Design the sequence.
């Protein structure tokens, strides 16, 4: 085998408890779910080949009856397990079970403030998603907010960064709307950002990046985010993509894809061994198309790493003491209060929060000098 996969991405079920306007599930997806033996088969073969990361998505993976056993099995095989969820089905008990099973990261979809999110994903689902995220965080699972950007919500990218701070999420992942996930016959015009609003969109991206940098929230690479206006204008240049060289996607029927953008599967795990599919001529043809920039092109979140600058890659991680962490948390909390309350907060409260930030920054600078 010339190369080993590192990432398994599984659209594990076609079932979902929501009917989101930006998604074709469950409108056009089959309700099939892979059997437990199928899950174990792909985990066994991919982990033996060198895979390190396992992502469960859907549909809604919490509708899979054996979800805890699947996560636990993947963890025992040495895989780092993450899950993409709408968050609405998470309870304290489910959060504890996910933690015990070995879930490392939960990506929770939140698309804006309550009225915006609920317009996209259904009434009451903002609060359910946010409560689910907090329950996951409270049991020690790392949480990410995933926002799908459309014409309906791009104005709230900075808000989502503030929400991450306030809710305890460590990361925000922005991804532009894709027509690939829209039910057949539905118009994309309702979701694509129009040309006359692109400048406003660009300004919001800059604002969100600056806010995230200041507060220490992890987001997509800057060059990826700054490419989004061209994507919505239809001017995005297709770049060489190496994603199919390290990862593969599986749908709920067992079909394996080099990438979701390639509509034709390269094999089926129910009928063939994974390694034969991974090393097949058909998979290699798909890789070459992606490498040579001959794929359909996209800005899916798995593609964002190709936009990382050298500076973003050279991240130095230092062990921080408890005092420093407390100071950073104070800054984040103060910033979140200012941003989320905006002009609704009394001037005295704003001034108090700003003063707290300045005091915390001084303490942080002093602590940094001491640690050197």
Sequence:
């Amino acid at each position: 085998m010339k190369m080993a996969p590192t990432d398994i991405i599984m659209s594990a079920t076609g079932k979902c408890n929501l009917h989101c306007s930006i998604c074709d599930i469950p409108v056009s997806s089959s309700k099939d779910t892979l059997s437990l033996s199928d899950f174990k088969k792909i985990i066994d073969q991919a982990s033996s080949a060198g895979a390190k990361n396992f992502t469960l998505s859907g549909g809604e993976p919490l509708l899979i009856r054996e979800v805890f056993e699947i996560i636990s099995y993947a963890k025992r095989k040495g895989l780092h397990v993450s899950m993409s969820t709408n968050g609405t089905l998470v309870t304290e008990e489910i959060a504890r079970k996910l933690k015990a099973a070995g879930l490392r990261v939960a990506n929770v979809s939140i698309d804006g403030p309550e009225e915006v999110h609920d317009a996209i994903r259904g009434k009451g689902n903002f609060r359910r998603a946010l409560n689910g995220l907090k329950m996951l965080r409270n049991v020690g699972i790392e949480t990410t907010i995933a926002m799908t950007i459309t014409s309906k919500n791009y104005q709230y990218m900075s808000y989502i960064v503030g929400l991450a701070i306030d809710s305890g999420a460590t990361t925000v992942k922005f991804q532009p709307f894709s027509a690939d996930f829209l039910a057949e016959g539905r118009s994309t015009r309702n979701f694509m950002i129009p040309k006359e609003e692109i400048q406003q969109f660009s300004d919001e991206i800059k604002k969100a990046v600056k806010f995230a940098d200041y507060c220490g929230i992890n987001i997509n690479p800057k060059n990826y985010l700054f490419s989004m206006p061209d994507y919505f204008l239809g001017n995005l240049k297709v770049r060489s993509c190496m994603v199919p060289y390290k990862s593969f996607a599986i749908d709920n029927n067992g079909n394996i894809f080099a990438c979701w953008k390639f509509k034709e599967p390269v094999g089926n795990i129910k009928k063939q061994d994974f390694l034969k599919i991974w090393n097949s001529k058909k998979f290699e043809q798909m890789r070459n198309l992606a490498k040579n920039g001959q794929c359909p092109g996209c800005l899916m979140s798995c593609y964002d790493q190709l936009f990382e600058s050298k500076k973003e890659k050279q991240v130095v991680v230092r062990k921080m003491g408890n005092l420093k962490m407390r100071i950073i948390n104070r800054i984040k909390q103060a910033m979140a209060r200012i941003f989320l309350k905006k002009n609704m907060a009394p001037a005295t409260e704003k001034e108090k929060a700003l003063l707290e930030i300045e005091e915390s920054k001084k303490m942080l600078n002093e602590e940094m000098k001491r640690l050197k």
User: Anything to note?
Assistant: The first strand starts at residue 7 and ends at 11. The first helix runs from residue 36 to 48.
